[in-house]
Design brief:
This protein is an all-alpha fold. It has one domain (7-132). It has helices spanning 7-29, 37-64, 69-98, 104-132. α1 (7-29) runs antiparallel to α4 and α3 runs antiparallel to α4 (104-132). It is flat, with a radius of gyration of 18 Å. The two termini are 30 Å apart.
Length: 134
């Protein structure tokens, strides 16, 4: 891999982290058990280990490269928007728990899925802002 590591790639990688979070939450919070769950858990664990090994080399390479200042500013803008969306979504989930509309398990799933959705939205917003040079 001789190509440069872009900020877009590192932001996109956070989607994989969010997917892994959803998978691990499912493994920890489920209330039933099937025989094939062991296979799924082993596959997810293997993918996670492989991903972290590959990611470590990419992060090391990215830390040595020159940073794109415009992309960093766009990422900060995108993070500010994503932060506001996260606060709104978390407030809705907390209110739903407060009025007993959802239970704790459902709230946990809502939170991890919110993280995944916000990560995807953050990546899309960053790509749009970075391509337009905003």
């Amino acid at each position: 891999m001789k190509s440069k590591v872009t900020l877009k790639e590192t932001v996109g990688t956070s989607i994989i982290y969010a997917v892994l979070l959803v998978c691990y939450y499912w493994m920890w919070a489920r209330r039933d058990w099937q025989d094939y769950y062991t296979t799924i858990q082993n596959i997810i664990t293997g993918v996670t280990i492989l991903f972290f090994i590959l990611q470590a080399s990419r992060i090391r390479k990215y830390s040595k490269e020159e940073k794109d200042e415009l992309a960093i500013q766009n990422l900060r803008r995108t993070d500010a928007i994503a932060w506001k969306l996260m606060i709104a979504a978390t407030t809705v989930i907390a209110f739903a728990c407060g009025v007993a509309a959802i239970d704790g398990g459902t709230a946990g799933y809502a939170l991890v899925w919110m993280i995944l959705v916000l990560t995807v939205i953050r990546f899309i917003l960053f790509c749009i802002m970075d391509s337009k040079g905003v």
